[in-house]
Amino acid sequence: MNKLTQFLKSGIKLLKRERYYAFLNILGLGLGIFCFLLTSLYVKDELTHDKWHKNAENIYMPQQVLETERGSMMLRPPYAIGQAWVDENPGVKDFVNISGNFRKDYSINDEEFKTEQFVFTTSALFRIFDFRLSIGDPDKALEQPNGIVISYEIASKHFKGENPLGNHIEVEGLGVYKVTGVLGPIPSNSHLQFDFLAPIDFSKSPYEGVENNWQFGSGYHYLLLEEHYDLDQLSAETAEMYKEHTGKEVSMPYQFNRFSELYMSGKAMRTGNSMFGGQQKYVVIFSIIGVLMLLVASFNYINLTTSRSFARAKDFAIRKVVGASKLRLIFIQLGETFFIALLGLILAIIALELTLPSINELLGKNLNLEVTRDPSVLMLPVAVLLLIMILSGIYPALIGSRFNLSATLKGKTPNASGALIRKSLIVLQFTICTGVLASAIIIRSQSNHMINLDLGYNSENIISIDIRKNGIYDKNEALRNELERSTLIQGVASGPIPRTGGAMMINVGEGEKKQQFFDYSSADKAFVRVAGLEVIAGSSFEQVEESKLENGVIINEEALKLLDLTAEEAINTKIPDSQMRIVGVIKDYHTSSAKSKIGPQIIAYNMEELSNVLLRYKAGDEQKVVAYAQSVWEELGGEAPFDYVVVEHYFDNAFKREEALSFIFNVLTLMLVVVAGLGLFALTVFESQLREKELCIRKVLGANYLALLKRLNTGFLALIGLSILISVPITQYLIGSWLESFPYRIASTTTVYIITGGFILLLAVVMLTTQGMRAVRKNPVDILRNE
């Protein structure tokens, strides 16, 4: 207890004696620790995703994989094969089928709500995975046809303070269910998340008629295998089993993907809310961010502390006189480092607790520092303190303990050994600072480039109405006729914007043909005109005689390349292995965001398979058009809510990840500039202390302020310039690999590096001039009177 009291008293004395420098050190380390803790929580959450199930390494999700030049396509196995695996393969212990997440409206006590996580499955879910019921019997909860299991969150929301079992929930299109179980809280690092678990019903969609179907699948199979079971053997057994049941060969090989690796490999076949989750590159990016920030903060502390060590040289010398050993001095300095780092850690934890809700909303995570939920979280701050002691404490401690006793007590400035190390740290700091600032600007530029990229059609003043809804699809013609009568509407059409409908496989190439995916959609005659597409050969459907429209299709430029035809050759040519005949070629246009490359597209004239209605209107009339279209929808008896999208804004959400990453880099850049600025300030203070007699002598001999500033700061500006030169190629290499993941990217980054380098140099000049003026304004009499 006495040692703890002594430690606290020593720390408080340090704060009183070195108020200004202690504040700078605590602020710098606090920022570095904050960033390191945050990124460590994120990386830990990602790397432990789905690994908390005891069977995680023995659970596999089977998929059929179709490889094409446009990439691979994952197909679901037929439903019936799931039970056959268990019955006929000795290595398969159990299986469960889990549907995708469905959006559903549900009502409780006549009050309506919405969910995006309505899932169908069986009781095997609780045998294979470690999902537990806090209320209910896991063996029976999903055995009742009308039973339903609800999540802990749903129970807390709708049944506060009461037992939900036996209550009824009405679900849109499915009927009334009775609550038979309540899930315990599901950890956030699970890609399987549920609001409702309903039993699979083979008489209802989406499982209607699939129980014994060996051709089509519904949902995703998960198999529990014997430990170390040979996956190649299982694949061969699956092929034999499929042939025995169907009499056909397996068209595509089966892959068995380990459950614990699905999330990070991108094969989970589910979309989550995590902004940066499930991608290895973002684990690397955030790891680098955290480490760089901690390094810069540590370098800054080293420079600040060593500069103050020279100012405190007499203090160290007197301690030696009264008997302190070199080891004792080292421990005193390390103790001060530990005290400052501890205060920085406390500041970082307070800041983290205050900002985590906003950060979790940005990242789509549920990060927390609650030790009771995860005791391993306690290791993070302990590890940070140890790292700070190693990175920041040892070198300043060694410097302070090596001062020459007699020279120091005579008033001489200690030898500035280690100047190369200190200046190297400044170069490293500003190399990192320059790189991160350039990266932030490049990310923002790339985001703006994609957002503003020409889609290839006129997306302004047009809405798309989904007509696949219940009660309106068979009234498509009546809907279109009514809409065309309005003077508010300039054009009515149907066709694949802003997205396409489906896909088809076509064999292309000479000799050994290859299967290729083509986007396939239906459109009406007016589509090309209303959408504002550019015809580069042939005609639009509107310009082709009705008698020649049967089997007529329009293709885009990408399809033209795959078919190995010129635009002129394509007209009246048939699509391979089909009756479709090309009547026109249009310029490529985007049916997905600019993050994806435009693919080959076939648009067929087929009035029976239209899925939307496009309405073009005058600028400013959107609300009037929507209101009118909704009134027509309701008059025709549309059972589902009126649903439409504004085409111009359809892809806005596609770039949230890049915008969030840009925001993160902007904040990080600000933090780095602050910390690196403190480091540069420390070095200028240190240098001016070492050279104050030289500066005063030059001042006495007639040197003006400008000459003194130039003498003092030229070396620093050279260091900053060197850091910029080092940073540019490294940053270009790292950010270049990120840019290459986009098919449409900014043309050049040269201007960015020029702007970044200029800003960093300007910032350095302002900081150096500000501190330098304080140094050169000192009265030579005060400095030289004892000489």
Description of the molecule:
- The protein has 23 helices and 22 strands.
- With 787 residues, the protein is of the alpha+beta class.
- It folds into 4 domains: 189 residues, no CATH class; 210 residues, no CATH class; 147 residues, no CATH class; 192 residues, no CATH class.
- The relative contact order is 0.10.
- It is globular.
- Strands 4-5-10-7-9-8 form a 6-stranded mixed β-barrel.
- About 1% of the residues have low confidence.
- It starts with a helix and ends with a helix.
Write the layout of secondary structure elements.
Elements: H1 2-17, H2 19-47, E1 59-68, E2 71-75, H3 81-88, E3 92-98, E4 102-108, E5 111-121, H4 124-128, E6 133-135, E7 147-150, H5 152-158, E8 168-171, E9 175-183, E10 196-199, E11 220-225, H6 231-246, E12 254-258, H7 259-265, H8 280-311, H9 313-321, H10 326-363, H11 379-401, H12 405-409, H13 419-451, E13 462-466, H14 476-484, E14 489-493, E15 502-508, E16 514-523, H15 527-531, E17 535-538, E18 552-556, H16 557-562, H17 567-570, E19 581-586, E20 601-605, E21 612-617, H18 622-635, E22 644-646, H19 656-690, H20 692-700, H21 705-739, H22 750-776, H23 780-784
Parallel strand pairs: 5-10, 7-9, 16-20, 18-19
Antiparallel strand pairs: 1-2, 1-11, 1-12, 3-11, 4-5, 4-8, 6-9, 7-10, 8-9, 13-21, 13-22, 14-21, 15-16, 17-19, 18-20
